[in-house]
Design brief:
heterodimer; A: alpha/beta; Rossmann fold; 2 domains; four-stranded mixed sheet; 21 helices; 13 strands; B: alpha/beta; six-stranded parallel sheet; 7 helices; 23% strand; globular
Chain lengths: 474, 236
């Protein structure tokens, strides 16, 4: 897998998403819970805006001095017995990791959840090289058994219900109990414990590295990342190059923002900061440690008007606030990074060509920008993307091109405009029922398939304006 | 240890940032706001204990409070409650300070299997921890706001103790309680600046493991401990 998921067109993906009633129900209830959790957590602090300002300042300073802090980080990791590999491309990162595993004669890899390893397609690369790779986050494990891509960056299996999960466990692992979530989770605990104990390689992502001391911090709830980093003798952590903070003092601020914004928790069950290899006489932890720092298109964003997109701390608050995500679901974006941040980042990392619709998958309501704990102006980035797509890339979606052409013609002729507003009500009469259009013709079909459209008013705005008396409010 | 591809990688970043490489002289600015220091500012130790107790309800963690003399009894009760037969505890100087050494010997004599983490025995510790029903450690720094125990894992306090057994008991000296993670982070930051090596693993642990990966239902107990008790003890 890489940043792209599936081969269907944007429209096909949207149609599938909209027709999937369970997914839409799950997404909207999840959004509700995530959102109220985030708002409650923010309210408890009282001065949430100050926290956001602080988060923004830290991210800004870090990005402006990224070369300095990455140098410091790599020096510190090396001092503590770790190896550091800077990978400009996904291929370089995958090849390095393949070689580490080969040199250790590693057979079994246990992984904790990591978006960047999804992005670079690490699992596929490792399997091709003959390794057995086990995802150990509950949601990721479910998806791996089902060969399904993630649909949310915090709860990746959000689109699946417990009955589907029971069936997957039964078909792939011989599970014979009920679809009670507790029983399913206990089964996963028992199954995966065997994998943890027999794995020789542990692979993690990295929420935040700390430049001043070389620590890699993992923010989790299930405990699988602790197992991945405590039991195998070799640990490889993969980080997007922007995922670091200068000091521990900055770390705690961003972790606080992340856990509150992602799940409404003051802190998640486990925040684990790991530095280098295990020390002398320590039993737990790796004897060999590798940190792989990945660019994969990020550096192209530095120094551009989109630089703040690199401030993202992957909390998904924007995804949970987005009305478009609510209706179409994560898979519709065709990217492992869905929602508003996905619509901003995906074209930057993977080009406009295959993702030109994404900046249009937004109502520009700015709920995302308001939710972002580090104040990324997401909706402004989306508008800028649209400008670039239309002006420079000349890649506006076909529908929009046609509509704009038609509108230009229609809007530039007062007679045509007047005529059509007058005629609209009569023309749409065959489809109108109780002042609503439930099954509209032609271009309206896309809209009325999923919701009603109000019938045009009896009186046009222009004629109302003309006939109203001065001071008449009706 | 090796660092590969660094120079070309970082040169490229500097170039995109439109300037030459920065290899020294970068100072963190004074941030314009410091909201993290306002949380429970000026709270007394007793008030922080109350905050911690309240937060324990949120994080599905049992809370007990005791004098140093009463610790023996509360710890026995908790182990009984968890039906503990095999117990692993950290090798910590506070074990003798709070007379837990003798408690562990008595429990062992009563037929329970009690092991103190022993670095010399290597992986045997993990094997035992994996089949133990109870893990016991002291908290090094305790965060009232979030209900978090902080462990600076080391050769006597293996990461497995608070991770592999089905239940976990954290003993919290009252003096270890601070308002929030801010104070713990400052402590680590300053120690690092003074040249002290940061522990290879700093574990911030907030109650039992959990997941909301199945239909957003909260499941308490996944890969880490399923049940957790905090015991706050008056300092000796």
């Amino acid at each position: 897998m890489s940043i792209r998921i599936g081969t269907n067109s944007f429209e096909q993906r949207i149609q599938e998403g909209i027709k999937n009633d369970f997914m839409r129900g799950a997404v909207s209830s999840a959004q509700g819970r995530f959102r109220s959790g985030r708002l409650k957590a923010a309210e408890e602090l009282g001065n949430w805006e100050d926290w956001r300002t602080l988060g923004e300042e830290i991210r800004n300073h870090t990005m402006e001095n990224l070369d300095y802090y990455l140098q410091q980080l790599s020096d510190q990791v090396s001092k503590r017995g770790g190896n550091v590999f800077f990978a400009e491309t996904a291929e370089e990162a995958n090849e390095y990791i393949q070689n580490v595993i080969k040199n250790k004669n590693g057979k079994k890899v246990v992984k904790s959840k990591s978006m960047v390893t999804e992005e670079i397609g690490l699992n596929k690369a490792l399997e091709e090289a003959g390794s057995e790779v086990v995802e150990t986050d509950l949601g990721e494990w479910i998806l791996q058994l089902d060969e399904d891509p993630p649909s949310h960056i915090v709860t990746p299996a959000l689109h699946k219900n417990k009955e589907q999960i029971r069936e997957t466990f039964a078909a792939k692992k011989g599970y014979d109990k009920t679809d009670k979530p507790e029983e399913l989770a206990l089964f996963a605990r028992e199954q995966l414990r065997k994998d943890f104990l027999s794995a020789d390689i542990g692979i993690t992502g990295c929420n935040f590295a700390v430049a001043e001391s070389g620590a890699v911090t993992l923010v989790t709830n299930e405990g699988n990342a602790r197992l991945v980093t405590s039991l195998p003798d070799t640990q490889i952590s993969v980080m997007g190059m922007e995922r670091l903070v200068p000091t521990w003092e900055d770390l705690e601020v961003l972790v606080s923002l992340l856990t509150r914004s992602a799940v409404g928790q003051k802190l998640t069950s486990y925040v684990t900061s790991l530095t280098g290899t295990r020390l002398e006489d320590e039993v737990d932890g790796p004897e060999e440690f590798h940190l792989v720092i990945v660019d994969n298109g990020r550096s192209k964003i530095l120094g551009t008007e989109f630089q703040s997109a690199l401030h993202c701390i992957r909390c998904a608050a924007c995804i949970n606030a987005c009305p478009v995500y609510r209706h179409v679901g994560g898979h519709s974006y065709g990217s492992i990074y869905p929602g508003p941040i996905g619509a901003v980042l995906t074209p930057l990392l993977d080009g406009y060509e295959d993702h030109k619709e994404l900046p249009y998958a937004s109502t520009l309501c700015a709920a995302c920008t308001e939710a972002c704990p580090v104040k990324i102006p997401l909706h402004e980035h989306l508008i800028r993307h649209r400008q670039i797509i239309v002006e420079k890339e000349n890649k506006a979606p076909k529908g929009e091109k046609l509509a704009m052409k038609g509108f230009a013609k229609w809007g530039s002729s007062p007679a045509a405009y007047k005529m059509s507003t007058k005629m609209a009500r009569t023309a749409l009469k065959p489809w109108t029922k109780d002042e609503k259009i439930e099954n509209g013709p032609g271009p309206m079909k896309g809209w009325t398939n999923v919701r009603d459209f109000p019938a045009p008013s009896k009186q046009s705005f222009r004629s109302w304006y003309k006939t109203r008396k001065k001071g008449d409010e009706s | 240890m090796t660092i590969q591809n660094r120079e070309s990688f970082l040169d490229n970043l500097a170039e995109n940032l439109g300037r030459s490489r920065r290899t020294e002289g970068v100072e963190r600015p004074e941030w314009s706001v410091r909201p993290q220091w306002e949380v429970f500012k000026g709270a007394t130790q007793d008030e922080l204990v109350d905050v911690l107790e309240k937060q324990c309800k949120v994080i599905h963690t049992d809370f007990r409070k005791t004098s140093a003399a009463g610790l023996d009894k509360v710890l026995r009760e908790t182990i009984d409650h968890y039906e503990g037969k095999a117990i692993i505890a950290a090798d910590d100087e506070r074990n003798s300070e709070y007379q837990l050494d003798s408690l562990y010997q008595q429990l062992d004599a009563k037929g329970l299997e009690v092991r103190i983490w022993d670095a010399v025995k290597g992986k045997e510790n993990q094997v035992f921890a994996e089949r133990a029903d109870v893990g016991i450690t002291f908290s090094d720094v305790t965060l009232a706001e979030s209900g978090t125990v902080t462990l600076f894992n080391n050769k006597g306090n293996g990461r497995s103790i608070s991770l592999l057994p089905k239940t976990y008991i954290a003993i919290i000296p009252k003096s270890s309680i601070v308002p929030r993670i801010t104070q713990a982070a400052k402590h680590i930051h300053e120690a690092n600046q003074q040249g002290h090596e940061v522990s290879s693993c700093v574990s911030f642990i907030t109650g039992p493991s959990n997941s909301a990966d199945i239909e957003m239902n909260l499941i308490v107990g996944v890969h880490g401990p399923i049940k957790v008790t905090y015991i706050v003890v008056e300092d000796k």
